[in-house]
UniProtKB/TrEMBL annotation, chain A:
The active site is at residues 20, 38. Pathway: Protein modification; [NiFe] hydrogenase maturation. This is Carbamoyltransferase HypF. It comes from Neptunomonas antarctica. Signal peptide: none annotated. It catalyses: an acyl phosphate + H2O = a carboxylate + phosphate + H(+); C-terminal L-cysteinyl-[HypE protein] + carbamoyl phosphate + ATP + H2O = C-terminal S-carboxamide-L-cysteinyl-[HypE protein] + AMP + phosphate + diphosphate + H(+). Residues 221-408 form the YrdC-like domain. NCBIfam families: hypF. The lineage of its organism: Bacteria, Pseudomonadati, Pseudomonadota, Gammaproteobacteria, Oceanospirillales. GO terms for molecular function: acylphosphatase activity; carboxyl- or carbamoyltransferase activity; double-stranded RNA binding; ligase activity; zinc ion binding. GO terms for biological process: protein maturation.
Length: 794, 329
């Protein structure tokens, strides 16, 4: 009987997912001696026993791993026998800094420079069914306790302060385990064996309900009951949720919803809802099988669902005015389960922040910043380590598509496919990169070898608190990854806060054109490497020629050459950013470009949206090109068409007009499209083709004269855009098509284009893992740099 | 060259191209006028060129601008304005009676502010090579011995006083030049600022810093001072007065009044303890009758201006970027 000892080093998602207990039990089963320990880069095991059993053990490590664990690399090698007499979970191995990790080298002397990420911190997950059942079992000691969790569920990224993932490195550090919890924590056969955030009513965090001054009103179960009562009475309660404060009101009470809108200074943007269970969701919305899976997934995102028109009397219209969709999530934490059990009706849950700021995470911050918004505060004494908004997902073409990537998904890395020459890192290691994204919907990313760590959604960088969150996220990511990138990739726009931050960092910088970053973002998440056509349609981004781009087609040969093959015909935006806030102005700019000075006479619908003096001044501004930058943006075309159709004159939030136009088309079965023209430019300059929307707008105005229903016009507009993509991409036979940019958050357009292209035998991809909007830019920036920049020059 | 708007590009032109050639401690202070010690006297010396289209606009003309502009620059260092020089660059064929009107306006403005025009020059350029008339003026004034006004003297706890509503000059000129029409009349705020400043000094107000809000507007002045002084300012949008006429015109054009030029407004940094007295004194003068506190100097020294908007959101103010490119994606 041969006795052997192996040292096994595992990297991947192996911390916070019950991996060490799993290893422990597996070692017991195979009668092995030795130890397992976390270290900042993963897990190390030394196992000694009968050779055959060690083989089984190694095999089972991969095949039987815990549900949420992911093994990226597993290296094992024989090592000298030792005299340990049992198998133990050792203290985590600390390393001072990743740059001089002596202890790590001791643990894994032959750690090769693989392409695996340094460490994977698990994201936060909703309570598992066992924990939920315990919480509602009067006989259980955690009955009605809102901070229950186990190795399979609970808070992770939101409480982790440093690595490795041990209780003392989380915000649970101040809570000393009671005897009962300690026993569970140390019993290898218990579900809570080494569950770092484990807690119970005796030793864990406690709830308290306070008034706006922070004075205690009630605590624990009493606080829950009074919170529920207050919400049922129409009050606004700020609740400390997983990744920050949420503002909750009764969604069935129109006055309460209206009050929240006023107090939050958010007149029209849709609110998300929490429903108690899947049945309740099905009462209000049409839920497909995949949507049901998403709603119930441990990530617990907000899922955009089509309203069930037959049953819309209960939820206040003001929750999502003018929208066919509702954003709904199921309870994401034990606290939400307990609250929803008391409330038993849909509840509005919106982020607890001042418009444009990151979500509040500390009790003092919430009391200071939300005092004018909330009536009551349901808080607790477990700190949140970083702000994490609720993630938002929409199903398109039968697959989940991320609209906002945050709680539940971050900080899991995405992997890249790279040119083979870049993969042979043993010769010239790839430099670590930091990508700082755009300006709106900021999200940053760090790459190490071929893994990319994207930060959570951070918000709009105009706000100084968001700027702080942006800087925090960068240091957070580099701390988690243990690397400090010396090269920064940023957008080409000179006035983005992120661009300025990069340029003043003193590090080597690389600027990537906005729409090329979008294109590469979509290719990156589909691991595409090689020739491709990119459709980058969004609001507006900066290009070298000073035109605000957003209706672009690119062709990549898979190597160094990216051609700008087509672009939307340009039109002016009278008043710049003010025009973006007023779709009616964009319509004026569009008509001016088409018809010249007398444009108002051609559109009575638009004419009546302005006063006489506004019309006069607009015409002056347009003819004298006064603060009227030109754009080639499809996002702006959406706005203009929404105003021309009399649907939306002002945007109270980003994307409002485009959403309204999509909603308007919802009931239309129209499958025809407007005419359009593709103009081939004679000169050799890029883009070589211009998409002329002129014939479409003329036809649209004619349709209005014949009183065609608005929904058919809206549907035909979507169809026209799909036809444009079909026409432009047709000559690129064998080039897969990638759809990116905020416009492709539009489900109708995305699904129509996908169908058309697939019918033609074209391969087509849209975003899934990262948002099509600027939240996905950072990924594209990194992929572009990886594919096109010589890595050795960094 | 889009470097004339007084924002980010002007700043670059100065720091990257011009200053390096004339490197000396005087220029480096980044002040509107230079302070020169000659014997026992401290003199303030400044120069400015005036290019405006149209030459006559509601509330003023290029002649008034040329005198007030230089008088105001001197006043911002606390100096008493004494002597003025004037250079005219005329375009061939410029109507003589228009020139007379400009000169009459200058003379009137000089008399009113007590400055003497003591030297001058006239050049004529070919037709098509000038916009009618350009005027350059330079001025000399005396700074009292106990007056030390400079960005470096801004201190934590100072209040920031704004002398009146903003954006009038820029909007009045633009509306006229571009042929825009608004229900509420737009008038330039073009005025001399020396009287209220001297009142403050005479009454013993310890002014730490002054800045007139010309090109680039309030925002650019604040950002430049915060950077020079290495201090953090907190400014409240709700506290900044803007007339209905200017608000309407700015909204129409998509411009932010904080970046629009003024010709008769200044900000003053004053110890909080003297704020009320200073406000009372300022409100006694018609040019600063609606003076108010718009912000204060904060504790941390981060060289930034925090701008609290009406919605409660806090932004960091920036210089006027070269072009106002929308950043909304
Ligand atoms: Fe974009
Ligand atoms: Mg000046
Ligand atoms: Zn659990
Ligand atoms: Zn306990």
């Amino acid at each position: 009987m041969a006795i052997e000892r192996f040292c096994i080093n595992i990297e991947g998602i192996v911390q916070g997912v019950g991996f060490r207990p799993f290893v422990y039990r597996l070692a017991q089963e195979n009668s092995l001696h030795g130890w397992v320990a976390n270290h900042p880069q993963g897990v190390t095991i030394e196992a000694q026993g009968e050779a055959l059993l060690i083989r089984d053990f190694l095999q089972a490590l991969r095949t039987n791993k815990p549900q949420r664990a992911e093994i990226h690399t597993l290296n094992s090698r024989a090592t000298a026998l030792s005299d340990d007499s049992c198998f133990v979970i050792r203290e985590s191995i600390q390393s001072e800094a990743a740059s001089d990790n002596k202890s790590l080298k001791k643990a894994s002397p032959e750690k090769d420079e693989s392409s695996a990420p340094l460490i994977s911190v698990p994201p936060d997950t909703a309570p598992c069914q066992v924990c939920i059942d315990e919480m509602f079992d009067p006989a259980n000691r955690r009955y009605h306790y809102p901070f229950s969790n186990c190795t399979n569920c609970g808070p992770r990224f939101s409480i982790i302060e440093s690595l490795p993932y041990d209780r003392k490195n989380t915000t649970m550090q101040p809570f000393a385990l009671c005897n009962s919890c300690q026993q569970e924590y140390t019993n290898p056969l218990d579900r809570r064996f080494h569950a770092e955030p484990t807690a119970c009513p005796d030793c864990g965090p406690q709830l308290q309900l306070t008034d706006v001054k922070g004075d205690m009103i009630a605590n624990n179960t009493d606080a829950l009951q009074q919170t529920a009562n207050a919400i049922l009475n129409g009050q606004i309660v700020a609740v400390k949720a997983v990744g920050g404060f949420q503002l909750l009101v009764d969604a069935t009470n129109p006055h309460a919803v209206e009050r929240l809108r006023q107090r939050k200074n958010r007149p029209e943007k849709p609110f998300a809802l929490i429903c108690a269970d899947i049945k309740s969701v099905q009462q209000h919305c049409i839920v497909s099988e995949i949507e049901k899976v998403l709603l119930l997934s441990p990530q617990r995102p907000i899922v955009l669902l089509a309203k069930n028109e037959a049953n819309q009397n209960e939820i206040a219209i003001s929750v999502a005015p003018g929208n066919n969709d509702l954003g709904i999530m199921l309870p994401a934490s034990p606290l939400h389960y307990l609250l929803m059990a008391l409330l038993q009706r849909p509840i509005v849950a919106t982020s607890g922040n001042i418009v444009g700021e990151p979500i509040c995470i500390s009790n003092t911050q919430a009391l200071a910043r939300l005092a004018t918004v909330a009536d009551l505060f349901l808080m607790h004494n477990r700190a949140i380590a970083r702000p994490l908004d609720d993630s938002v997902v929409r199903v398109m073409n039968g697959v989940p598509v991320m609209l906002r990537r945050s709680r539940g998904y971050v900080p899991l890395p995405l992997s890249l496919s790279l040119p083979e020459s870049l993969e042979s890192v043993s010769l010239s290691p790839l430099p670590d990169l930091l990508a700082v994204g755009g300006q709106m919907k900021s999200c940053v990313a760090i790459s190490h070898h071929n893994h990319v760590y994207l930060s959570q959604h951070l918000g709009d960088l105009d706000n100084r608190h968001t700027q702080q969150a942006f800087e925090d996220a960068i240091s957070d990511l580099s701390h988690i990854c243990g690397i400090k990138p010396q090269t920064i990739i940023h957008d080409l726009h000179p006035n983005y806060v992120s661009t300025r931050w990069a340029q003043s960092s003193g590090k080597k910088c690389l600027a990537v054109p906005h729409h090329i970053a979008h294109f590469f973002s979509c290719m990156a998440e589909h691991h595409h490497l090689g020739r491709a056509v990119g459709v980058s349609w969004d609001g507006s981004g900066f290009a070298h020629d000073g035109i605000l781009r957003g209706g672009e087609f690119f062709c990549w040969d898979g190597h160094a050459d990216i051609k700008h093959v087509a672009s939307l015909r340009t039109f002016p935006l009278p008043g710049g950013e003010q025009a973006i806030r007023e779709p009616r102005r964009q319509a004026a700019g569009l008509l001016y470009a088409l018809l010249g000075d007398d444009f108002f006479t051609e559109s009575p619908v638009l004419r009546q949206q302005f006063s006489t003096s506004e019309r006069y001044n607009l015409q002056r501004m347009l003819s004298r090109q006064l603060n009227s930058p030109v754009c080639s943006s499809v996002g702006r075309l959406f706005d203009a068409v929404a105003a021309l159709s009399g649907i939306t004159t002002h945007n109270h939030f980003e994307g409002q007009a485009a959403m309204a136009l999509e909603a308007c088309a919802y009931d239309s079965k129209a499958s025809w499209h407007f005419p359009f023209e593709i103009i081939n430019k004679q000169d050799s300059l890029h883009p070589t083709q211009i998409i002329d929307w002129g014939p479409m707008i003329r036809a649209l105005l004619d349709c209005q004269k014949t009183k065609m229903p608005r929904e058919d016009i809206a549907a035909a507009f979507h169809n026209t855009l799909a036809q444009i993509i079909l026409t432009i991409t047709q000559p690129f036979d064998g080039y897969p098509v990638f759809l990116s940019g905020g416009v492709f958050q539009n489900k109708r357009l995305t699904e129509t284009v996908t169908l058309l292209l697939r019918q033609q035998g074209q391969q087509v991809y849209h975003h899934e893992a990262v948002p099509a909007n600027d939240g996905g830019l950072a990924l594209g920036q990194i992929y572009y740099a990886r594919c096109l920049e010589n890595p050795s020059c960094a | 060259l889009g470097h004339g708007s007084g924002g980010q590009l002007s700043h670059q032109l100065l720091t990257e191209l011009i200053y390096p050639y004339f490197d000396n401690p005087m220029l480096a202070t980044g002040h509107d006028s230079a302070l020169l010690s000659i014997g026992e006297q401290r003199l303030a010396f400044t120069t400015d060129s005036f290019v405006v289209s149209p030459l006559f606009f509601p509330g003023g003309d290029i002649g008034k601008l040329a005198v007030y502009g230089t008088v105001n620059d001197l006043a911002m260092s606390g100096a008493k304005a004494l002597y003025l020089s004037c250079s005219l660059i005329l375009e061939e064929g410029f109507p003589m009676n228009t020139l007379s009107k400009v000169l009459a306006s200058m003379s009137q403005a000089a008399k009113e502010t007590g400055i003497q025009l003591v030297t001058g020059d006239t050049k004529v350029v070919e037709k098509g090579k000038g916009d009618g008339v350009y005027i350059n003026t330079a001025g000399i004034g005396v700074v009292p011995h106990d007056v030390y006004i400079a960005p470096q003297h801004i201190q934590q706890g100072d209040v920031i006083i704004l002398s009146g509503d903003i954006g009038r000059h820029g909007m009045a000129v633009m509306a006229m030049r571009e042929g825009l029409e608004f229900d509420n009349p737009l008038n330039s705020d073009c005025a001399a600022l020396s009287d209220p400043i001297h009142t403050l000094l005479n009454e013993g107000i310890a002014i730490h810093c002054l800045r007139d809000l010309t090109r680039g507007g309030l925002a650019t002045a604040l950002v430049e001072l915060a950077e020079t002084a290495e201090k953090t300012f907190i400014v409240e949008e709700t506290a900044i007065p803007v007339s209905e006429a200017v608000t309407g015109a700015c909204e129409m054009l998509g411009l932010d009044p904080c970046y629009v030029a003024n010709e008769g407004r200044f900000i003053a940094f004053i110890p909080a303890a003297q704020a009320e007295t200073a406000l009372t004194l300022l409100r006694d003068h018609s040019v600063s009758a609606t003076s108010c506190i718009i912000g204060r100097v904060d504790e941390d020294n981060k060289s930034q201006v925090i701008y609290k908007t009406t919605t409660g959101s806090e932004r960091l103010m920036q210089r006027l970027p070269g072009e106002q490119l929308p950043r909304i994606c």
